[in-house]
From TrEMBL:
Lineage per the UniProt record: Eukaryota, Sar, Alveolata, Ciliophora, Postciliodesmatophora
InterPro entries in alphabetical order: PHAX (IPR039047), PHAX_RNA-binding_domain (IPR019385), PHAX_RNA-binding_sf (IPR038092)
Originating organism: Blepharisma stoltei
Family membership: Belongs to the PHAX family.
One function term, GO molecular function aspect: RNA binding
Gene Ontology cellular component list: cytoplasm; nucleus
GO biological process terms, semicolon-separated: protein transport; snRNA export from nucleus
Localization of this protein: Cytoplasm; Nucleus
Domain Phosphorylated adapter RNA export protein RNA-binding span(s) in chain numbering: 20-98
Protein name: Phosphorylated adapter RNA export protein
Keyword terms: Cytoplasm, Nucleus, Protein transport, RNA-binding, Transport
Length: 115
């Protein structure tokens, strides 16, 4: 991102067509498409508000991972907050979540691959 002003939370507007890119910049998050999907479904105001909460949490020292070995990334906090805030059916729509039993066989097949 070349325009550093785009990476300033105070410059963001809910109707900005580049909002998802700016939020990704602020969070250091490479999953711009996922942030774009969240913005489209939940709206720019929700995304800006959530990003402000993430920035505040990070300023206060961050949020540890479940096992406490490190702090979550800003993007990880953002996505976790989204998942905890909205209805489960909307979470599935946004994150394209599949039932766990369908994913486990794929993971087993990946472990058999050699590079």
């Amino acid at each position: 991102m070349s325009d550093i002003n785009l990476c300033n939370i105070e410059n963001l507007r809910p109707e900005d067509p580049n909002l998802a890119v700016a939020i990704a910049c602020l969070l250091g998050e490479p999953a711009v498409n996922l942030i774009s999907r969240i913005t489209t479904i939940l709206g720019g105001e929700f995304v800006i508000s959530t990003t402000k909460k993430v920035i505040a949490l990070q300023t206060e020292g961050g949020v540890p991972t479940l096992n406490g070995s490190r702090n979550r990334t800003s993007g990880g906090i953002f996505f976790s907050f989204v998942k905890k805030t909205i209805a489960r059916d909307i979470v599935k729509l946004i994150f394209n979540e599949k039932p766990r039993q369908a994913i486990e066989p794929l993971e087993a097949n990946f472990s058999k691959l050699t590079v």
